[in-house]
Design a protein that fits this description.
It is a single chain. With 519 residues, this protein is an alpha+beta fold. Helices cover 62% and strands 10% of the residues. The protein has a six-stranded mixed sheet. Strands 1-4 form a two-stranded antiparallel sheet. The protein is elongated. The relative contact order is 0.15.
């Protein structure tokens, strides 16, 4: 136990100073986002803050990606708005518990590896769309409440002060690392701009203007909902969507951090950790959450590579709530807006713009579409799903055009069809058009040495070709089927019956119906 504890908190190649400072930077940046997401979901700001603390702490300790930050997120907040409005906050807590159980099940069943099915153009589109969403979300801080109670854009001195402080923050974050790396530039920028506002007497919006973050320790709370089938049917759709959104965002963020740090995380372990974290936060009055790409990038860029930084961020956030709320509420929003603008700039894959003319048009289409869905609908799961489906359809279409048939007659008068390319649902029709039952001799051989049967549509295509030849009294032989294709044919013996011939791996296909009639 002692060795495990030591490895957790003092892993190899861990710079304790960088881990602690990056964790504190993340904790400061978590405050306004957690508050904002709580307001979006229609719950108390403390609900979002407690969620960020609980999920951040548990996933940092148990998760599959050291250095990744989790907490309350906008993607989850958007999903639960309708549930809170229609059923109340207690149903939200129950839905979060069920969400966590679903995520644990996904991890136990080792389904996290399905993230490998996400193509690179979808990743580009997801990251670019998220960068734009992060940047656009900051624009609301440039609005103020008019005397009539409506939101309107700032004008005059408040606007100039806000823009000036944002620019100063971005300049510090950008250029301070060229002078020193002793302190994370993001943390230095937040502290520097805060001191400038406090001692300079500048009138600008602060964290305290959003909401008070003062509170006590989170308390255990059983969701006050009826334990019956009706309740399950109410929360299940929301829980399933939240679980899917949370896992997709978490696993894509994990993949992105893997690329940046050139290390490898564990997707299934992260799924289980996310699930345990959400079950726990549901029993402590939380709103549910997942990995946060913006905060994770802040952490990694500030030097956080291990679990220490995530633990410091979570514990630091709780300390802010308990003891330092007065001081944290004095931080100007401009400093945090500038930080998030730099995160957005760093998140955007600028290299993707340079490859537009160098990659297939279908990849560009997928990339742009995923970006647009992410930006316009703010639904990351839907954007990724659409991207994967379109990429899969494009792949199927391209492979359907690859099937070819080389034809020749041997010295015995047998016609050979050598098939090239996969035989599956998209290529089945083209495959059937390659044959000429009326013009061919009495025996033909279909050679699959350079092909394979992929699905039931491929089996059905062979069935139809064989049936056409049988109707005109001719015989079809199949040669060189690989093992997986043979298994498919064996499982489809109710449709067709396969008999091996003496030579090599060739075998004759006889329709099951005709075999039955012969008996």
């Amino acid at each position: 136990m002692t060795q495990t504890f030591y490895r957790l908190f003092m892993p190899k190649e861990a710079n304790l100073k960088d881990e602690v400072l990056s964790g504190l930077t993340v904790a400061l940046a978590l405050v306004p986002e957690a508050v904002a997401f709580s307001l979006i979901a229609g719950v108390s700001p403390l609900v979002g803050l407690y969620t960020a603390f609980i999920i951040g702490l548990i996933t940092s300790i148990m998760g599959g990606r050291p250095g990744m930050i989790s907490g309350a997120t906008g993607a989850i907040a958007v999903v639960v708005v309708a549930l809170v409005v229609q059923q109340g906050v207690e149903y939200l807590f129950a839905a979060v518990v069920l969400m966590g159980l679903i995520q644990i099940l996904v991890g136990v069943l080792k389904l996290g590896k399905l993230i490998r099915l996400v193509p690179h153009p979808v990743m580009f589109g997801f990251v670019n769309g998220l960068a734009i969403v992060i940047a656009m979300a900051q624009l609301s801080q440039f609005k103020t409440v008019s005397p009539a109670g409506s939101l309107e854009w700032m004008t005059g001195s408040p606007l100039y002060i806000m823009i000036g402080l944002v620019v100063v923050t971005m300049v510090i974050i950008k250029f301070l690392p060229r002078l020193t790396t002793a302190v994370p530039s993001a943390l230095a920028a937040i502290l520097g701009v805060s001191l400038l506002v406090i001692f300079g007497g500048l009138d600008t919006r602060t964290v305290g203007d959003l909401a008070s973050i003062s509170g006590g320790l989170p308390e255990f709370h059983l969701p006050m909902v009826p334990l019956n089938w009706e309740t399950l049917m109410i929360i299940l759709p929301y829980s399933a969507i939240m679980a899917g959104v949370g896992l997709i965002e978490s696993l894509l963020t994990l993949t992105l951090i893997d690329e940046i740090t050139e290390t490898r995380g564990h997707g299934n372990k992260e799924c289980v950790a996310q699930g345990i974290a959400n079950v726990t936060t549901g029993f402590f009055g939380g709103m549910g959450g997942c990995a946060m790409i913006g905060q994770s990038l802040i952490n990694v860029n500030a030097g956080g590579r291990n679990r220490i930084s995530g633990i410091v961020a979570a514990v630091g956030l709780l300390v802010f709530i308990l003891f330092l709320s007065t001081y944290i509420e004095m931080i100007p929003m401009a400093a945090l807006v500038g930080l998030m603008f730099m995160v957005a700039i760093g998140t955007f894959e600028w290299a993707s713009l340079r490859v537009f003319r160098k990659v297939p048009k279908s990849d560009v289409l997928v990339m742009v579409l995923v970006t647009l869905v992410t930006v316009l609908l703010h639904n990351l799961a839907l954007a990724v799903l659409i991207g994967v489906v379109i990429a899969a359809l494009v792949f199927a279409w391209e492979n359907s055009k690859m099937i070819r048939a080389r034809k020749f007659m041997d010295e015995n008068g047998v016609k050979h069809y050598e098939i090239y390319g996969p035989l599956f649902f998209a290529s089945a029709m083209t495959f059937g058009q390659k044959f000429d039952p009326l013009g061919d001799p009495n025996e033909i051989i279909i050679d699959f040495k350079e092909s394979r049967i992929v699905d039931h549509s491929g089996i059905d295509a062979i069935h139809k070709v064989t049936e056409r030849y049988e109707k005109v009294g001719k015989t079809v032989y199949i040669r060189h089927l690989n093992n997986s294709s043979r298994v498919l044919l064996a499982k489809a013996e109710k449709i067709i019956n396969v008999n091996y011939t003496e030579d090599d791996a060739s075998f004759k296909i006889i329709l099951e119906e005709e075999k039955s009639e012969s008996h």
